[in-house]
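Illustration 12: peroxidase.
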Amino acid sequence: MGSSRGVTTTLIFSPLATTFLVTIGLLLCQSNAQLTSTFYATTCPNVSGIVSTVIQQALQSDARIGASLIRLHFHDCFVQGCDGSILLTDNEQNAAPNVNSARGFGVVDNIKTAVENACPGVVSCADILALAAEASVSLSGGPSWSVPLGRRDSRSANQGGANASIPAPFDNLSNLTSKFSAVGLNTNDLVALSGTYSN
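Figure caption equivalent — predicted structure in token form:
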């Protein structure tokens, strides 16, 4: 629960939404490498704690930042897989479904700075987004889970792919179902994400 400008906001996770959030990382995170929750065990063992600390600080001034970070991860995964490409300057960020929707880039920058100070050149931005999504769920009262890690960062973004792949607010049910199906998600996942999306 957070408070901003006198308004109290609580993210409530239904079992369906919880199921979706736990599986999104597993279903959407396409990678050539084998992902494992112990990927940084020797090179950056406290990466999860660093991410959580920065998000806790951000939640003090922006109660919606948790939902925004989940949305960033979701939008990143729908285009080229969970590769951090949404963080590349201006390309995917300016795709129609991201305009006035994708936010939290400054918090991701703060997380990356903190992680780089502890473990220079080790943790991918794609993994930071995945860890930020999990920490946002957990810090908002939802479940916690071991995040599979080891993603590689993209070197290119795809605005056309973002325009075509990310579910847009004006998409009809048929288009939404098709876009979710294209990345291995079903109608239950669509309902769960839509239910949490308005936060």
